[in-house]
Structure formats: C-alpha cells, structure tokens
Write a structure and sequence with these properties.
nine-stranded antiparallel sheet; 203 residues
Length: 203
C-alpha cells in the first residue's frame, strides 16, 4: 500500500510531503510502469505534451527530458524558459505540479552522457528526415525508408546525435495535492535562498 494513501490532516507534515514528491519523481525515472514516468510538460506558450522523465534529483534542481533539437519547443524555451511539469499517480490520488526554469543543452556533460546511455532503439527517432511538427506529404513515419523495417545498428544510430538534445529544468515551485472524500490535502513549496519553504494551502 502506498505510504500516503491514508494520510490525514492530523498526521501530515510538510517535510514528509516534499520527501514523498521527490521519491515519486526519482522512482518514476527507473520505473517505466509508473504513472509519473511520463508526465505532461507545458512550455510558456501553453503548449502541452507528454514526455518521459529521464532524470530527477532529491532537491528537484535537475529534471531532465530528451528532445529533438528540431522540435518547436526548443525555440520556445529559448525565448521563454518557463516550464511546468504535471504528474498524477491515480493509485495514490497524488498530483504533483512543478514550475521552474529550463534550458536546452545540445553539447556538454549532460547531453553527452544521456546520448551515450541511450539505447539504439531510443536513438532511432533522432534519425527522422525532418523534425517534429514539420509538414509531410503523407501520413506515416519520418524515418528514412531504409530504416523503417530494418534493425538499426548502434553505429548507424550515431548519425542521430546531431538532432539530440536534453531539456534541463530547475524546479522553483512544487504543488502537492492528494484528493480524498474528506476534502484532501494540499501543500505548496517554494525554493528560496534558504532552501525549500512549504505552506499548507486549500485543496
């Protein structure tokens, strides 16, 4: 049973809620079956999409997502670095909403390490002939015809590196919400120079 399934106002502590949020996010990185493994990510223009959470740390100073460098969201983030991540665990009825600042890294320690760790299958999409959202003459894959039905070798996948990038987000605000028949619990945490500061808010 989830630790916080029966959490009540009398037993709730802000530090426990923050620890719960980070544990869910860090755990979701490793567990592809977790509902939080693929949260909704919203750029400053209000455009939303589901993305796989590739990394998260205990302080929420680093949440990492992978993207195609040709994707429109890369230009959006360059103009407006605000990013929102929305995740929901239906089993525990816990919603996490994080707001922060993000940047795109194409070359560097994080991008290089992420590409090196990516499976050949994961690299496949970065070999598309055009980037995400580009117009196409017909429905279907943007992969080159010779790669659509053939097994991709690791050496072939290296060509996708030039289109690969990582989105790095530093969370500045965390909203933790648990819904229940008695009204639920909600807390909001803000990052400050002294660390994270939490307060109860109405669900």
């Amino acid at each position: 049973m989830d630790t916080f399934t029966k959490l009540t106002a009398a037993s709730a502590h802000l530090d426990l809620l923050f620890a719960d949020a980070t544990a869910r996010l860090v755990g979701a990185v490793r567990d592809r079956h977790s509902a939080i493994h693929a949260p909704v990510v919203v750029t400053g223009d209000g455009d939303a999409r589901i993305m796989v959470l590739r990394a998260a740390d205990d302080d929420l100073a680093l949440l990492r997502f992978h993207t195609d460098l040709r994707s429109p969201k890369v230009a959006t983030l360059a103009a407006d670095p605000r990013l929102t991540v929305l995740a929901y665990d239906p089993g525990a009825r816990v919603q996490l909403r994080l707001n922060g600042i993000a940047h795109v890294e194409t070359n560097g320690v994080h991008a290089d390490a992420a590409w090196a760790a990516a499976s050949t299958l994961s690299r496949r999409c970065y070999l598309a002939q055009v980037g995400p959202s580009a117009p196409m003459d017909a429905a279907g894959s943007a992969l080159p015809p010779e790669l659509r039905d053939n097994r991709l070798t690791h050496a072939q996948s290296e060509a996708g590196r030039e289109n690969f990038a990582v989105i790095m987000m530093r969370a500045e605000c965390l909203d933790w919400l648990q819904l229940s028949h008695d009204g639920g619990l909600r807390a909001r945490f803000e990052r400050s120079s002294e660390g994270w500061q939490g307060a109860w808010v109405a669900p």
